[in-house]
Amino acid sequence: MLSLGPIGFVAPWLLLALPALPLIWWLLRVTPPAPRRQAFPALRLLRDLPAPEETPARTPWWLLLLRLAAAALIVLGLSRPVWGPGAAAQGDGPLLLVVDDGWPSAADWPARAAAAQAALEAAAREGRRAALLTTAPAENGEALRATALMPAEALRARLAALRPKPWAPDRAAALAALQAWVSQNPGGFASLYLADGVEHQAQGDGFTPLAETLTAAGPLTLARAEGRATRLLLPPRAEPDRLHLALRQAPAAMAGEVAVLARTGDGRALARATIPVAAGGEAGEAALDLPIEIRNQITRLEIEGEETAGAAVLLDERFRRRPVGLVGPVEQGASTPLIGPLYYLERALEPYAELRQGGVAPLLSRQLAVMVLADRPLPEGAERAALARWVEEGGTLIRFAGPRLAEAPDPLLPVRLRAGERQLGGALSWEQPQGLAPFADSSPFAGLPTPAEVAISTQVLAEPGPQLSDRTWARLADGTPLVTAEARGAGRIVLFHVTANAEWSNLPLSGLFIDMLRRVVALSSGVAGAEGSQPLAPLETMDGFGRLGPAPGGAGAIPANRFAETAPGPRHPPGWYGVPGEGGERRALNLSASLPAPRALAAPPPGTAFQAIGGVPAERDLGPWLLAAALLLLAADLLLSLVQRGLIGRAARLAALPLLVALASTPAWAQDMPLATRIGYVASEDAGLDETVRQGLVGLSDYVNRRTAAALGEPVAVRPGQDDLSTLPLLYWVITAETPTPAGAAAGALNDFMRQGGIILIDTRGEGSGEGFAPGAAAALQRVTRPLAIPPLAPVSPEHVLTRSFYLLPPELPGRFAGGQVWVSRQEDRANDSVSPVIIGGHDWAGAWAVDARGNNPYAVIPGGARQRTLAYRFGVNLVMYALTGNYKGDQVHVPAILERLGN
Amino acid sequence: MAEPSPRGPAPPLNPLAAEALGGRLPPLVVAAERVAATVMQGVHGRRRAGQGDAFWQFRPYLAGDAVGRIDWRQSAKSDRLFVRETEWEAAQSVALWRDAAPGMAWRGGRDRPEKRERAELLLLALASLLLRGGERVRLLGARRAFAGRGALASVADALSRHAPPAADEALPRHARAVLFGDFLAPLEEIRAAVAALAGRGVRGHLLQVLDPAEETLPYAGRVRFEGMAATETPLLLPRVEGVRALYAERLAAHRAGLAAIAGAAGWSFATHRTDTPPEAALLALWQALAPG
Known about the structure:
heterodimer; A: about 900 residues; Rossmann fold; B: about 290 residues; 6-stranded mixed sheet; 3-stranded antiparallel sheet; 8 helices; elongated
C-alpha cells in the first residue's frame, strides 16, 4: 500500500497508466469531429451547388481537456485510493466483535454497523482474524453461538447481513456462548464490544460478568453512543375523549421534548404530540386530544425520528371505535330510508362506531361493546338469557321503545313500563307535544344543548317508583322520563322512551340524537365478550426498526385467551396477530408492553478503553467516487458531441415516440370532440341510404348552427346495442322493408334510450306524395317496432310543442314528401314531461335536408317549391330544439306571446 | 374517417387563438362576381327567386301554387292574385388548404413557430373572418363545408385530422381557394395543382410560409443536411457559408416561378416569414379577398 499524505493507494501499480495520457491526446487530435446534422426542408434547392474548398475541422481544445480528465480519473479510481486509512484495534492477535443487536441498537444502527466494519477493515489490513458474537436471541430460536475465527474479510459479509432484532438482548445467554467460545479458542484475544447502553433485565442483567470475561482474555474496547437516550413508548391508555401517552427512558442529563406521531393504517401522520421529559427524568406523559372519528383511524404511534421496535406502538380495536350491534324489530327487516326503524341509528352511529347488523345470537358470537334494540320485545327464551349474561359481563344494551315494546315489556329494561303508550297532542287530546327539559348535571348528557324544536308526541311511560328519579338521564319539559338507564353487573341497560325513527318524536332528526348516542357509546366499557382459545396467526410483524413486514417463518400463532400475557420474543415477534382474511379481527402485540423501563448500563471493569459510535469519520474509499466523476465527465462529453452534431433534438423526439404511440392508440371516438352535441342515425346495411341520411343530418346540423344558438357536431352512425346512445339527444331511424327487427340487446338499448329522454324519429320514406317510393316500409314498421316500448300515439295536433319549439309551423310537417300523417305520443302521457320519445312519419326529411359535398341539394322535394324545402328545414330545427329543450315551449307562459305573434 | 397524418398527431390547434387574431378585422365578405352554385344561404344575391330573406318580386298566381303562398295584402290592391317571392341569396364558398407535408413541420429556431403551425393559425383566422361574414368555408379534400359562427371549432377539428393533397373533385365551380404552404416542391407539380383548380373556374391566392432560416441559410461549417422525409438522401456540405449566396439566388428564382404560375392562372401570390407577426399576413389576405 502506497501512502501519499492522508491518501493511501491499495493498487498503486495501476498509476503506471498515467503516462499513457499524451497518447490519447494525440489520437483525439488526428480524428476529425463528425459533421453536425441539420434537418432542412429546402434541401432540394441546396443540391448540386458547386462545392467550395474543404478545410479540415479540429476537435475543440475544451473537449480534448474533458476527455483527458475523464481518462485520468479512471486510472486514479482503479488504483483504489483510500482517504484516512483507519487505525488498528487495540492489541494484537484475533479480534472478537461483540454486538448488541436488540431493539435499542436500531436507532443508530448504520453508525454501529459502520464502526464494526471499520474495525474489521483495520483488522483485515493487519491480517488479523476475527469472530462475531451477537447478544440478542436469533429469529430461528437457536441458542446463541459465537462464529469461528475467520479472516476479517470473510466476516464482513456476515456483519453486513446482521440486523437489529425487535426484542431485547439476552446477555446471560451471550455470556454462556462466550464461555463456550473461549474454551474452544484458548489464547488471548482483543475484543470490541458495541453496547446499546441499556440494562434490559430488572435484576441481574448479564453485562458485568460478560465484560469481566472479555477483560480477562485481553484488552476490551467498549463502543457506546454518547448522549443518546434509549426511549420506550408504552401503549397509551384510552380515555373517552383522549389517548393518554406515556414514555420511559434511561435518565438523561438534559431536559427535552419527545415528539410522538400518530399514523393511520396507510402511513399518513394524523397528529403530533410532544411529551416533555424533565432533566434526569425517566418518564414523561402527555395527552393526545383528538376527535373520535380521527382517533379511530390511528393504528400506530411512534416516536418521531426514532426507528426502533420499542418506539412504535400498534393500536388495535381496544383503542378504537367500539363495535355496535343493531337489531331491528323484525330480523329480516330492511332498513327503509327515512322511515325504517334502524335508518337514523345507522346514520348517527356510522361515523363513530363500527356497525354490525344481524340477529342477537350471531352478534353476540363476536366481541361487542354496545347492542341497540329498536322496538324489539324480548320474550322468554335463550336469546333473552344470552343478552342478560352479556350485559352482566359488561355489555351496554340500548333499547328504543315502540308499539311492540309498549305491548310486551320484559325484564331487560331499566324501569317498569306501563302497558300502552302515552299520546301527547293529537285530535282527542288537550296536551301539546312536549319539548325537552335541560339535562341534569348528574346525567351523562349534561352539557348538551336541548334544541327547542325537538318535540315528543308519543312515548312509553315508566311506573313511578323510588328509584325512577335516579335512573332518569333525560326528561321531558313536564318531568316525565325520556331516557332511563340502570347498571346491571358490569354492564348497563339504557332505554329511550321513544322510537328510533321519526314516528313518535322528531328527536332522531336533531343533532342532539347523535350526541346522545355518542355519549352512551363512549360510556360503554369497550369490548366485552368471551374469548376462545382459537389461534391468532401472525399477520404482519415488526423488524428491529419498527417497520411492519410479512411474518417470518419462525413466528407462531398465539391462542386468543393467552394473548394478553404473551411477551414478544423470537417465537412471537411484535406486530399484528389475528384471523387472516378480509374483515378478520386483529390484535396488536406490542414490545413495550412487556419490557421494564430501560436503565443505564453498569460501569465496565477498570482498564476498559472507550470509543464513541458515530462522530468519527470512517475511512473512505475514494475509488468509486473518482470513477463516478469520470462517468459523469464522459456523459457530458457524449451530450456535447451530440449537441455539436445537431442530434440532440432528434434524440428528444425519439424519446417522445412511445408517448405519441400511446396517444394515437386511444379510440378515434374519444379524440373526436366527445363533448359536441350530435344527432345520431341508425346505421343500416345499405351504404347508399346511410350516405343520404348522413348528408341530410349534415345539412340539418349546418342549418341549425346557422339559425340557432345550438352548436351541433358531425352526425354519427350508431348501432343500437353496440354503441353507447346515452350522449345523443336525437336518433334518426329510417325503416325500409329490409330493416331487421331489433333483437335483445338492440331493442333494450333503444328502449333505454327512449325511457331516459332520448327521441327517435322514425321515417318510413314513403307517405303522402311519396306513396309507393318505399314498398313494404309500412309493414316493416309494424314488425320492427314490436319489441320496442312505443307509447300510445296520436297525430301531431296544431298545438303540439313540435309545431312551435322554434318556428311556428303548420302541423303537416313536410319533408321531401308532404301530405302524410306524423304521429307522436299522446299528450296525456305524463311520463318524461310529456315529451314524446318517438316521432313516426314517412316524409323522408333527411332527403329534403341533404346537402352534398358540392353544397347542393341532391334530392328534389315533391310536389316541390322552395317553400316546402324551407318548411322541411324549419321542421328539422323545431325537432332539434324539441329534443334539446323538451316541453319548454309548451309551457303556458309562452301562450300569450305566441298568440300575439299569430295575430299579426 | 381521418387519414393518419404522416408524423403522428398534429400539434393541438387552438381556434381561440385564431379567433383572437382575426378579431381585429371586420367580417370578410368575399368579392364574388360569380358565386359558386350552392344552396347555402348567404349575403350574395343571385338575382333570381329562391330561398332568402330579401323581397324579390310579386308574380301572378299560377294554377298549382299553394293557396297559402298568396300575398293577400298585395292581391287586394287589384283584381289579380299575387305570390310573393324572395331573392335567392347564397354564400360564397372559400376552399382553404394548408400543406401538411413533413417539411412544414419544421422551424429553424426555438423563438418562432413551425411553418405548419403558422399556416394553420392563418388558415383558421381567415376561416373565422369568413364564417363571421356569413360565407361558406371548406377544406380542400374534406367531405363537407362549414357555415355559421359556431363552426370554427369544427373547422379546427377537421383540420387536425385531414392532410389531403391540394385537389378536390367536389369543389363547386366559381369557388375561391386560398392555399398555404412552403411551395418548395418542383414548380411543375405546383403548376399542375394550380392549373387543375383554375381550370374549374376557381380563383385563388397562394401564400408561401417560409422560416427565416430557409431564406438566409444561417448555418456554418461542416453540416450534413437531411430532408424531412425519410426518402430524401442526406447532403453533406463541408462549408455552408460558401454556398449561401448561390442558395439565395436559387430561392429567388423559385419564387419568381411561383409568382409566374399564380399570375398565369389569374391568382395572386404572397410570401410570409414565420418570424413576422401573423397579423400582417392576415391583413394582406383580407385585402386580397375583400371586394374593392
